Amino acid sequence: MALSDEPAAGGPEEEAEDETLAFGAALEAFGESAETRALLGRLREVHGGGPEREVALERFRVIMDKYQEQPHLLDPHLEWMMNLLLDIVQDQTSPASLVHLAFKFLYIITKVRGYKTFLRLFPHEVADVEPVLDLVTIQNPKDHEAWETRYMLLLWLSVTCLIPFDFSRLDGNLLTQPGQTRMSIMDRILQIAESYLIVSDKARDAAAVLVSRFITRPDVKQSKMAEFLDWSLCNLARSSFQTMQGVITMDGTLQALAQIFKHGKREDCLPYAATVLRCLDGCRLPESNQTLLRKLGVKLVQRLGLTFLKPKVAAWRYQRGCRSLAANLQLLTQGQSEQKPLILTEDDDEDDDVPEGVERVIEQLLVGLKDKDTVVRWSAAKGIGRMAGRLPRALADDVVGSVLDCFSFQETDKAWHGGCLALAELGRRGLLLPSRLVDVVAVILKALTYDEKRGACSVGTNVRDAACYVCWAFARAYEPQELKPFVTAISSALVIAAVFDRDINCRRAASGTFPHGIDILTTADYFAVGNRSNCFLVISVFIAGFPEYTQPMIDHLVTMKINHWDGYPPRRGHLGAGRVQHTAASAVHMYTPSPALSALSLAVFPRLLSMTLSPDLHTRHGSILACAEVAYALYKLAAQENRPVTDHLDEQAVQGLKQIHQQVCVQPLGVGLGGQLMRQAVCVLIEKLSLSKMPFRGDTVIDGWQWLINDTLRHLHLISSHSRQQMKDAAVSALAALCSEYYMKEPGEADPAIQEELITQYLAELRNPEEMTRCGFSLALGALPGFLLKGRLQQVLTGLRAVTHTSPEDVSFAESRRDGLKAIARICQTVGVKAGAPDEAVCRENVSQIYCALLGCMDDYTTDSRGDVGTWVRKAAMTSLMDLTLLLARSQPELIEAHICERIMCCVAQQASEKIDRFRAHAASVFLTLLHFDSPPIPHVPHRGELEKLFPRSDVASVNWSAPSQAFPRITQLLGLPTYRYHVLLGLVVSLGGLTESTIRHSTQSLFEYMKGIQSDPQALGSFSGTLLQIFEDNLLNERVSVPLLKTLDHVLTHGCFDIFTTEEERPHFPQWLSKCDTRVCRHSADVRTHTPPAWGSRPALCSRICSPQVSAWAFGSGPCAAPGRFCGMVQFPGDVRRQALLQLCLLLCHRFPLIRKTTASQVYETLLTYSDVVGADVLDEVVTVLSDTAWDAELAVVREQRNRLCDLLGVPRPQLVPQPGAC
After folding, report:
1. Domain check: are 664 and 774 in the same one?
2. Where does the pLDDT of residue 324 fall: very low under 50, low under 70, confident under 90, or very high at 90 and above?
3. Which of 28, 30, 294, 1154 has the smallest number of CB atoms closer than 10 Å to its CB?
4. Is residue 50 a part of any domain in this protein?
5. Pick from 1208, 1150, 1214: which is nearest to 1176 by CA?
6. Other C-beta atoms within 10 Å of 1055: how many?
7. Rounded CA separation 586/289 (Å)
C-alpha cells in the first residue's frame, strides 16, 4: 500500500488511533496525563453541547482506547481522574448536562479498566448512601441519552451497600406525618434494583451487581432474600425468550441470581437452590436462540451445583509442585527437587451422600458442552471443572467418562470442541488422573486432525485449536514421567498440525514445545507458520529431517491431506509429500543402509497407486499428484548419484505409473468436475514422469499422453473460467517436458515425422474459431524445445504474428493475442540469437518482424463486458519487448535499431502515465529496467542522460508506481523531453479524464505543476500546445482519448494555462486549432445537426443512433452540459476563435434537449458579465435581457426566433436549417 503524500485527512483522534495500532502492547506509562487533566478541567466550559462537547468526548475516548490492552497503566491515575469528575457530580450547582457528561467520562474509564478495579475508588462512607440513592431516584430510566449516568450511579450504590452498619440505623423516624410512612432505605434500594433489572440498556448489568452486594448483606438476607428470590422466579416463570421484553427480563434476572449464588454464603443460599433449579428447568433455556440467555443459564446452573456441594479441595486430585513460584524457588535453593505429586488417598467423607440436584446440574453442564455457541461451551467446561473438584473421586471419574463420550464421530464438532475445553479444565485443576491419560490422549490425537465437510466448507477448526489448548494444559499439569509414554504421539501430532493444518490459528496454536523444540521453533516460529505455502513446502521439509517425525508426516499427508476435498491447501500435500519424501529418503540414505531407502519407497508407492483407483474423485486426484511428485523427488535423489530413477522404483511401481492415465477414468472435458480435476492431475503426472526420465521412449503410452494434452488444449473453452488457467499451464508444462524427453532423435535433432505433425497441427489450431483453443496452442508452440523449432522458426513466428494481429472477426480475442505474445517471447528465449539463421534463431532478418508484432500490440485498447481487456495484451507486449531487448543487448546489441528503441521507450512511457494502477506500475518497472540495464547498456535510448537524472537508480526500489501520488509527479517530468512528450501527454490525458478520484487529482496536479513551470517560456508553451493539438487531430474520433481530452481542455482553460494567447488576436496558433478541433468533435458526434453556419456548408444528418442521449453525452465530454462551458471558456480568446465559439454557442441555444439550451443560456450570461469586451456596451444590456428573460425550454420555433436575435446582436451569422433526406 502506498504512502500518501497528502496530509492526514483526520484530526488528532485518527492519529491517536493509528498510534494505538502501531504501539500495540509496548506502552510503558500513561503518557497523556497532562492532556487528560486539562481535558477534564474544561468540562464546565464545553458541557452545553455543540461541537466542542463532542470533540472533548471523542478525544478522551481515543486516549482511553489506546490503553485497552494495557489498562493497568491507568491505575496510578484513576484516583485523581475520579476525583475531578466526582467533584462535578457532587457540586450542587452543576447543571444536569454537566453531570451527565462527567458520568460519560467515568463510563469510558470503567470500560477500559473494568468496573471491578474502578469500583473500589468510589466514595463509600455512610454519608454517601443517601446522596447516591437520591441521585439514582431522580433518574429517568427512559432517557436513552443518559444511560451512562444510571449505570455508574448503580455501581456506586453497590459499593455503598458494603458499609458495615445496619441500614435501619439510617432510616431515622419513618413516620413523617400522621398516617404517612416514609419508605426505608432498604426498600428503596431493593425497589430501584428490581426496576433496573428489567431495563434494556447497560444499567441492567449494574443492577445485577447491586443486587448481589445488597441481598447478601447480613441485615438484608434475613428479611429480603426470600422475597427477592420469589420475585425473580416469578419473573422467570412469566417471561418468554421468544419476545424481546421477555429476553430483557430473563437476562437481568439470571444475572442477578448468578451473582447472588456466586457471592452469597452457602448456608444462606442452600435452602433456595433446589427451588431455583426447578424453576430454571422449567424455563427451557437450552431451546432459546439467545446466546446470552443460554450462557447465563449455564452459569447459574453451575453456581447452584457448587451450592449443593461443600466447598473443599479434593484430596485425591493430582498435584504437580507448588502453585507458588516463590515456594518452588525456595525448594530449589534448599537443594530439593520439585515437590512430588501427592499420594492419592480416599476422601474422609467419601461416603457422604451427594445431593440429588448435583446429577441434574452435571447433566445440564454436559448438554452445555454441546451448545452451538463457544461462550456457552466455555462456561459449561469451567463449570464441569469446578464441580468435579468438589466431587468424590469415583463420581468425578464418572464425569470424565461422560466428557469422553463427547468424542464420538456421531457427535457434532460442537461436542468435540466442548469436550476438549472440559478436558483442558479438568487437567489444569489436577482432576484428570494419570490413569485416564491413555483414553484422553487417544481422543486428543483424533481431535488434532478433526476436519469434517459440511456442504461447501468444512468444520473443525475450533476443535483442533482446543485440542492444542489441551496439550498445552497437560504439559503444565503433569510430571514429565507421567507424559513420557505419550510424548512421541503428541509431539508428532502437534508438529503435523503446526505445518499442515489449514487454519493459521491452529498452526500457531500447535507450534509449542516438543522434542527438538528449539531447533524446530527457530524455523517454525509464530510468523513463519502464518504462510501456508511456506509451511507445506519449506518448514515441513526441514522438520522431516528429524527421524521421529518423518514417517508420521508422510502417513498424515497420504492418509489425511492427499484425499482432502479442498484442493488448494490440503491437497497441496502432494507437493509436501513429494518434498518430504525426498528429504526423508535423503536422510535415510545418509544415516541408514540403502535397503531402508528401498523399503521406504516401496511402502509409500503401493498405497498411492492403489489410491489412484479409488471411487472418490478427490482421492484419485490427490494420489495422482502425489505419485508424480514422489517419483520426481526420487529422480532428483538418484540424479545426485548419477543413477536412474528405476534404482529406487521396482518394476511394479514403474508399470503402475505408466498405466495410471489408462486405468483412471478421465471424463471428457465439460462433463462435471471429474474431467477437469483428473486431466489436470494427469498432465502434472506426465510432466513429472517426463522430467524423471522414465524409460518409456518408444512406448505407446507416449502417444496416449500426447493425445490427452492435445485434446485438453483443444477443449479449453469447456473448462470453467476459474480453473482454465491452471489447466492450460499444466497441459503446456506437460507438453514441454514430454517433447524434451521423448521426441529428440539425436542430440539437438528432432524426429522429422513428429516435428512435421506437431508443427502443422498446432499452426492449424491457431486459426480455430474458439479463442481458448488459440490460447492453448499458442502457448504450446511457445513451450516447444529448440530442436523441434529448428528449421520451422519462421513458419511458427508467422502463425503467432497472425494470432496477435487484430482483425474485425477476432477483435474480442484479447486473451489469444496475449498468449501469442507470450509464446513469441518464450520462443525467442528458447532459440536465442544467431546471425544469418532466420529459420533457427533470432537474427537481423527476422528481428524487425518480431518487434513489429510486439509494438503493434501496444495500441490494443479492446474493451468488452469485462472492462479494458486490452491491458492484458499491452502488459504481455511490454514484458515481451523487455525480454527480447535484453536478450539482444546481451548477445548482439547492434540488432537494436535506434528507431525501434525510441518507439519501445515512448510506448512504455505512455503506459507508465495511464490510469490503471497495476499496469502503470508494470510499465514503470519495464521502463526503468531497460534504462538501468548495464550488461551492456541498451543502445539508442533517447535522452539517456536526462532520464538517469530524473530516475536515479537509487530511487527505483523506493517509488511505488501504483500510487498516483508518487507516480504522476515523476512521469510528468518527461514532458520536458521532446521525444517522450507526445506519448506521455497522451497517457496523462487519459488519466486526467478517468473515473478514479485519486488518479484524476494527482494527474491534474502534476500536469498543472509542469505547465506552471513553463508559463514564462513561450517556446516551451507553444511546443506543449502543439503536441496537445496533434493529439487532438490524431484521436479526433477515438472515444477513449477524445472524451478525457475534452475534460483536460476544460481544466486547462479554467486554470488559465493559456492566458498568454488572449493577447494575440489574429495569430494563427493554438486557439484557432483548438476551436476547429472542438467544432469537429461536436459535429462528428453530437446530436443531429439541424443547424449549420452558411459559411461552412451543410453536411448530411446523422442516423438516429448518433442522436441518442448517450452518444450526445459522449460528445459533450463528461455530460451533455459540458460543451457550453468549454465554448464559453474559448470566448476569452479574441479574433476568429471568439467568433467561432459564439457561433457554436448559438447553435447550442437551439439544441434538441431543453436542458442544454437552458444551461447554455445561463453560462453565456455569466461569460458576458465576466468578459466585458466580448460585446459592445451599447448592446450588452439587450443581450443580457434576451438571455435572462427567454424561456429556453419552450418550443424550438419560439426559441429559434430569440436565438436569431442574439446572433444579430453578437455579430455572428444566423444558422440555417439543413434538410435531412432519409433522416432516421
Report:
1. no
2. low
3. 28
4. yes
5. 1208
6. 14
7. 57
Residue showing cell 499444466: 730
104-118, 641-655, 1088-1102: which has the minimum mean pLDDT?
1088-1102
Q: Is 1179 helix (H, G, I), strand (E, B) or coil?
A: helix
Last residue of a domain, one of 114, 135, 156: 114
Q: Mean pLDDT throughout 385-398?
A: 92
Per-residue pLDDT at 570: 47
CA 447 from centroid of its chain's CA atoms: 29
Structural domain range at position 102: 27-114
707-715 average pLDDT score: 92
Residue 924 lies in a domain: no
Are residues 886 and 771 part of one domain? yes
Beta carbons of 161 and 214 less than 8 angstroms apart: yes
CA distance 155 to 801: 81
Domain with 452 in it: what CATH number? Answer: 1.25.40
Q: Are residues 868 and 769 in the same domain?
A: yes
Q: Which three cell numbers stand for residue 337?
A: 527437587
Gap between the Cα atoms of 1071 and 962, Å rounded: 35
Report the pLDDT value the prediction gives residue 8, as an integer from 0 to 100. Answer: 36
pLDDT at 887 over 50: yes
Answer for the pair 433, 479: CB distance below 8 angstroms, yes or no: no
C-alpha cell at 1064: 494575440
Task: Give me the number of domains the chain comprises.
Answer: 5
pTM: 0.75
Q: Are 882 and 845 in a shared domain?
A: yes
Q: Which residues contact 222 (CB under 8 A, 6 or more apart)?
A: none
Tell me: do 740 and 751 sit in the same domain: no
pLDDT band per the 50, 70, 90 thresholds, residue 1048: confident
Chosen domain end from 891, 910, 933: 891
pLDDT tens for each residue of 968-1020: 999 999 999 999 999 999 999 999 887 888 998 999 889 988 888 888 787 88
pLDDT per residue as tens digits for the range 633-655:
888 888 888 888 888 888 888 88
| 722 within a domain of the structure (yes/no) | yes
Q: Which residue has the cell 529496467?
A: 929
- Long-range pairs for 350-354: beta carbons < 8 A, 24 or more residues apart: 350/392, 350/393, 350/394, 352/392, 354/309, 354/391, 354/392, 354/395
Query: Alpha-carbon distance 217 to 224, whole Å?
Result: 10
> Considering the domain boundaries, does residue 475 fall inside one?
yes
Claim to verify: residue 608 and residue 674 sit in the same structural domain:
yes
For the chain, the average pLDDT equals 82
| CB burial readout 1211-1222, b (16+ within 10 A) else e | ebebbeebeeee
Burial 1163-1188 (b: 16+ CB within 10 A, else e): bbbebbeeeeebbeeeeeeebeebbe
List, in sequence order, every beta strand (DSSP E) within 928-970.
none
**Are residues 39 and 85 located together in one domain of the fold?**
yes
Q: Is the pLDDT of residue 780 over 70?
A: yes
pLDDT, position 1055? 67
- The terminus-to-terminus CA distance of the chain in angstroms comes to 52
> Where in 914-1000 does DSSP place strands (E)?
none
Q: Say what the pLDDT of residue 1059 is.
A: 59
> Alpha-carbon torsion 523, 528, 529, 531, what sign?
negative
Q: Name, in order, each residue with C-beta under 8 angstroms of 1155's C-beta and a sequence gap of 6 or more.
A: 1120, 1121, 1193
Closest by Cα among 441, 442, 463, 436 to 451: 463
CA nearest neighbour of 481 among 337, 589, 596, 380? 337
**Quick one: average pLDDT of 848-862?**
94
- How far is residue 878's CA from residue 925's CA, in Å, rounded to a whole number? 10
829 shares its domain with 692: no
